[in-house]
Structures are given as C-alpha cells and as structure tokens.
Amino acid sequence: MNGKILWANLHLLFWLSLIPFTTAWIGTDYDEKLPVIAYGAVLLFCAIAYFILQAQIIQSHGEEFPLRKVVGSDRKGKISIVCYSLGVVFSFVNTWIAIALYAMIAVLWLIPDRRIEESV
Description:
With 120 residues, the protein is an all-alpha fold. It has one domain (3-119). It is built from seven helices and no strands. The chain is globular and about 50 Å long.
C-alpha cells in the first residue's frame, strides 16, 4: 500500500459515488441525450479509474505478483473503456444504441473469466 494506490482508490470511489445519481436520472429520462451521455461518461470514468488503480497495484509489486498473471492483457477492461467511449459518442446520434452498448458491457462482465482458470 502506498500513496499512489490510495489516491487511485479515492479516484475510483469518487466516480462510483456518482452512479446512483446518473442511474436515477437515466431511469426517468432514458430517451433524452443528456442523461444517457452523463451515465456513459460516469461509467467510462469508473472504468478508467479502475484501470489506473489496477495498474498502480500491479506496479507496486514484483514480477511474481499473482494479480499480474490473472489480469494479463486485461481484454475486458480495455473493451469496456472503448465501448463506453463509443456509447458516449453514439448518445449524440441515438440514445438506444448507447444504452445497448452499456448493457452489452454489463453482460460481458457477467460472463465468467477464463483467465482466472488459466492462471491457477
């Protein structure tokens, strides 16, 4: 544990604290652009903050750190960041496309990870 990890964790917690607000907003106005953009932006920044925290934790440990092997190339994390970014962009065109992208990422994370089985 070091200062960088603590700050990265606070960064993640800040963005996570905004999820209830944006979720309630998109729940009432799902066909409006601004709530869908805000929801996607918060999810995007949560994904980026998680990526930073994960990188800080891995960087602060040695090469044999088990998390380094489990995370690997972190395909799901990178796909999430790209899809959230696309969702925010598509929010300006069609909110339903953006919502479908956000839902797709949720389903992606529900699928069990094979990288855990491979690293054990």
